[in-house]
Amino acid sequence: MVGGSEVTGEICVLNKILTQNLESYLSGLYGAPVQVRGIEEIGKKKPGDLKSFGYGKPYRITFESNGAVRMVVLESMSENSFGHDHFSDRAQVLLWSHSAFNRLPDHVHSVDVGAFANDQKMISAGDAEEFFLLTEFIEGKEYADDLYHIANTGELTELDLKRAVTLATYLARIHGTKQDAPQLYTRRIRDLVGHGECIMGLIDNYPGSDPVAKPQLLQKVEQRCVDWRWRIKNRSHRLSQVHGDFHPWNVLFRDAVDYTVLDRSRGEWGEPADDISSMLINYLFLSLQREGILSGPFAKLYRTFWRTYQELTHDDEMMEVIQPFFAWRGLVLANPVWYPTLPIDVRRKLLQFVESVLVQDRFDPESVNELL
Fold first, then answer.
1. What value does the mean pLDDT take over residues 277-298?
2. In this structure, are residues 8 and 78 in contact, taking their beta carbons and an 8 Å threshold?
3. 84: pLDDT confidence band, cut at 50, 70 and 90?
4. What pTM did the predictor assign?
5. What CATH number matches the domain at 141-371, 3.90.1200.10, 3.40.50.150, 1.10.10.10, 3.40.1010.20?
């Protein structure tokens, strides 16, 4: 307990942590006296951004040491019902993040993982109340900004197509690193269905009175996903280096196709379809809001991304395993906890896609509109 109240993942970073504790921690980390010059929340919700929920709040810390000004990002994790109910749940994610961020190409670097102690001091380890992650601060604009611009204007530029090619090429590159560890693949598929952040966790966090995602529908989806687990859990030859949360809010672009990825999640090794479905379904998501189907500029981005990846990897087997990953991502986008202002007809179409894709033995990339 701190000050008589439980320290949760967001930890009231600005209000309850004294600046001198932050300076003391950074001074010890960098081996020189530090003066904090500013603390600012980043990643705030932008006008027109439908995404409302997140697992934590990042803060940009600007500080001076030895005459040089530097910036880092401090992020903790909020207590929530997506598998982060306990202190140990949140600690596990942040400890893993520090370990794994620096092993993925083109990912923002983690500087340290530390903890808030019961006397409000910040420590590298020890009598922890909550953990936090400290990463480099990287300039750039979220790829989601590009997609919202396209949704608002209908304009698709050559740069938009080049960026889709760049992202597909990046995934082909990291997925080319394989691992012989069958138990890790089995776990990844088990977590896909049963983890609090994944299918069952999403289903359990739909409101009980939801007019679209009724309990009978969600139960049917869950049962089909369990069937899919048994169909694919032994395909360990597919175990690859993955990002694990490769969506438009986790890619920062600067000039042209210069980029950095953020916040890989849920394990270093997994199924490539995880990353592919995570990006593809966002092209569908924005197109549904603009066109009502996959059409126009987003259909072109969808096909460009898919074809680029397939030309580089020739991964035909992906058509036999991607279905439950699409279902998971569809459950995120259709969930009013995450997107409370999403039009109900778009939610209905997303859930129809989830239902329909789960009964396809072999996914046809050109069948999306039929599945809607």
1. 98
2. yes
3. confident
4. 0.82
5. 3.90.1200.10
Fold of 13-136: Phosphorylase Kinase; domain 1 (3.30.200)
- Phi and psi for 58 in degrees, rounded to 5? -90, 145
pLDDT mean across residues, the chain: 89
Per-residue pLDDT, 91: 83
Q: Alpha-carbon distance 306 to 308, whole Å?
A: 6
Convert the pLDDT of each residue in 320-347 to its tens digit. 999 999 999 999 999 999 999 999 999 9
Q: How far apart are the first and last CA of the chain?
A: 49
Name the packing angle between helices 182-194 and 323-333 (round to 10°): 40
CA distances from 139 to 71, 136, 166, 259, 294 (A): 10, 10, 18, 10, 32
Per the CB < 8 A criterion, the answer to whether 111 and 29 are in contact is yes
Residue count (the chain): 372
Half-sphere exposure of 251 (CA within 13 A, CB side): 27
Instruction: Give me the pLDDT at residue 194, please.
Output: 96
- Chain-centroid distance of CA 244 in Å reads 7
Give how far Cα 239 sits from Cα of 83, 97, 191, 218, Å: 24, 20, 14, 29
The domain limits of the chain are 13-136, 141-371
Structure tokens at 237: 């030859």
Q: What is the pLDDT of residue 4?
A: 38
